[in-house]
Design goal:
Order of helices and strands: HEEEEHEHEHEEHH
Strand content: 5-15%
Shape: globular
Strand order of the largest sheet: 4-3-2-1-5-8-7-6
Number of strands: 8
Largest sheet: 8 strands, mixed
Helix content: 25-40%
Length: 248
């Protein structure tokens, strides 16, 4: 049977996963790609039917998270299911999920190249076509207020972030959001690479060329609609193939 004109034949995920297994794959994949700082960071995935969230426990490095380690917390951050406590900074997530109905998944960590630009006070220029994913979707939060450990501090941060899908936090790290797990993980992993690219391009000197403004929106749409799910499938195949205990 012939495919529809707009359909793409792409490699399948290859496995059926529970949400906890999917989230565990996300942790390990981002850790392997450098989007982590030892035991720091958290990913939340909200269930809009009751406001509860899946999240990693405090104390496990992202590269060792398995499905059975995932916790479920209430909309206010209280542990409902799981063996351990969650990060004291959980209100980065609880308040963002409340303020942003479109953000089903919130990813936060301190990857190296993102934090280099956070220390410089700079958002990455779009020097490469993949960077168009972030066209008009980045915000720099330029005041460092320490760790976010109260709902009030989380709410204030959410207000500054507004409708951006990427927030670079001065002297801290980065937050990436998405309507799906695939979209959020794709943004997170891609952003740190774009930060490294931008830093290296500027260090090289000369007259760097940015992607033309007129080309950015169409490329952004293509990346979100076509690349995110394909990227995610590759992530899952790689992690499950090399670290099968992630599903345990």
């Amino acid at each position: 049977m012939a495919l529809q004109q707009d359909a793409l034949a792409v490699p399948p995920l290859g496995v059926t996963l529970r949400p906890e297994q999917e989230l565990a794959c996300a942790f390990r994949a981002l850790a392997a790609d450098g989007f982590s700082e030892n035991l720091a960071g958290h990913i939340t995935w909200v269930d809009r039917t009751d406001g509860s969230m899946l999240v990693n426990p405090w104390g496990l490095w992202w590269g060792e998270v398995s499905a059975s380690d995932i916790c479920r917390i209430s909309a206010g951050g209280a542990v409902l299911q799981g063996h351990w406590d969650v990060t004291p900074a959980i209100h980065i997530h609880t308040e963002l999920h409340q303020a942003r109905p479109d953000a089903a998944v919130v990813v936060h960590n301190h990857p190296y190249w993102s934090t280099v630009l956070a220390a410089l006070g700079e958002l990455p220029e779009i020097f490469h076509q993949t960077g168009c994913l972030f066209h008009e979707e980045m915000v720099f939060v330029d005041e460092y207020d320490g760790t976010i450990e109260t709902p009030e501090m989380g709410s204030a941060l959410a207000a500054v972030i507004g409708d951006a899908n990427i927030a670079l936090l001065a002297n801290h790290g980065v937050i990436a959001m998405g309507a799906t797990l695939a979209e959020a993980v794709y943004r997170a992993g891609t952003f740190d690479r774009q930060c490294r690219l931008a830093y290296d391009v500027l260090r090289a000197g000369g007259s760097p060329r940015s992607v033309p403004e007129a080309a950015r929106r169409p490329l952004q749409r293509t990346l979100v609609e076509r690349a995110a799910d394909v990227y995610w499938a590759g992530v899952v195949r790689r992690v499950v193939g090399s670290e099968p205990r992630v599903l345990a």
